[in-house]
Amino acid sequence: MSSKAAILAAIQKNKPSETPLPALLNFPDQPDLVEKYQKGLSGNGGKLIEAGSLEQVQQHISENFAEDQLIASLVDGIKGNVDVQQISDPHDLEHVELAILKGELGVAENGAIWMPEENVVHRVLPFIAQHLIIILKENTLLTNMHQAYDQVNVSAPGYGVFIAGPSKTADIEQSLVIGAHGPRSLTVFLLK
């Protein structure tokens, strides 16, 4: 018997018996999800604004961004001046100042937002824009990531990502830098 065969035989002989998988932990729903979500988001450097309508979002954009800045909106009812659907080369998005996107789920424990590919069109858009606004419905807030993964269809084709704040790094001299590798700000408008 070769040494390889002897090693494999010894491994097979000493293989432990199968054990059942542990039961999944069950976490109860938390009260005050909006407050917990705001805490999680602000801990990541994001900002939460509760809004009653998309008109409030449009007013915020008008007050904080100039008309000549490139604004890409993928939310019906919010005006932009960059038609992302007509752009075939994602490199053409490099000068986008603001991207306005729709989030699918919000996670209170960490402020994360689930963004499937159909909500961003180009995978680079939420990361290349200087500022990011995400519209999220209050009734999509979940307590934790366990509940989020129960909702997300990970076997579906395409791309999806959890976004949990503006870009940040503390690699250089352990000094926190916001916007080093992506958006300098993330504002989440929570619609009632």
TrEMBL record:
It holds the Pfam family LUD_dom. Coiled coil: none annotated. It comes from the Bacteria. Residues 93-191 form the LUD domain. This is LUD domain-containing protein. PANTHER family: LACTATE UTILIZATION PROTEIN C.
